[in-house]
Amino acid sequence: MDNAAIFKLSYGLFVLSAKDGEKDNGCIVNTVQQVTTTPNRITVAVNKGNFTCEMISKTGAFNVSVLSTDVPFDIFKRFGFQSGRDVDKLEGFEDYARGGNGIIHLSRYANAVISGKVVDTYDLGTHILFIADVTDAKVLSDKDSVTYDYYHKNIKPAPQKTEKKGWRCKICGYIYEGEELPEDFICPICKHGAADFEPIE
Ligand SMILES: Cc1cc2nc3c(=O)[nH]c(=O)nc-3n(C[C@H](O)[C@H](O)[C@H](O)COP(=O)(O)O)c2cc1C
User: Which residues contact 13 (CB under 8 A, 6 or more apart)?
Assistant: First the structure.
């Protein structure tokens, strides 16, 4: 099987946000898609280790900010490379607003916001698939949406030269030092699996 075929699938990139009591949080995901129009339903797959997954499992509601091509790498670092369990991701951040459901969404670097109310979940092992009714949706700008491909080619910084030997995460640049990368290895920074690692040349 040629795993490279999987990388030919195209994805968008999003900030998936939630609110539990006074706690606001969000993480980067690439797994949002519309699955039916009547009713208007979307799905999103979220790693069980993510705080955002725990929050949505508990509250059953979220917003999706559809990232646009003006988004800087800092947004990925803020929402995708650290956990809301350890930090307040909104500290020092002003580019957000609240939707009618009280949950934050990006007010800049996103061309649309879609609100979801969870109607079902599916346990995928490592991830939970949330199936949600679209309860609100708003266009914020006419800029193009970011695709995963665009992120890799235009947003993510080029890998730094290193003396280290091992494997580099293609998503965030984390380096695993060692001859063999364990098959079940999960990147501690961005939670992507072994398939998203490449050997350091
Ligand atoms: C480009 C990119 C794509 C990502 N896609 C997903 C995804 O589809 N599902 C997921 O659960 N995590 C994904 N992540 C990882 C989470 O954003 C990351 O683990 C985040 O730190 C979790 O934060 P939290 O613990 O506050 O929820 C992605 C990260 C990046 C940088």
Answer: 28, 29, 30, 67, 71, 146, 147, 148, 151
Ligand 1 atom with the shortest distance to the CA of 76: 31
Q: CB of 191 closer than 6 A to ligand 1?
A: yes
In terms of phi and psi (left: phi > 0; alpha: psi -120 to 50; beta: otherwise), the region of 30 is alpha
CA atoms of 25 and 42, how far apart (whole Å): 20
Angle subtended at Cα 97 by Cα 94 and Cα 103, rounded to the nearest 5 degrees? 120
DSSP, residue by residue, 71-92: --HHHHHHHHSS-TTTS-TTTT
User: Hey, what amino acid is at 9?
Assistant: L
The residues near 153 (Cβ < 8 Å, ≥ 6 apart) are: none
Task: Give the 3-state secondary structure of residue 166.
Answer: strand
Which of 15, 16, 28 maximizes ligand 1 atoms within 8 Å of its Cβ, making it the mutation to test the pocket? 28
Look up residue 35 and give its amino acid. V
DSSP letter at 153?
I
The mean-pLDDT minimum among 3-7, 35-39, 73-77 falls in 3-7
Mean pLDDT of 93-112: 97
**What average pLDDT does the segment 174-200 reach?**
90
Kindly report the pTM of this predicted structure. Answer: 0.91
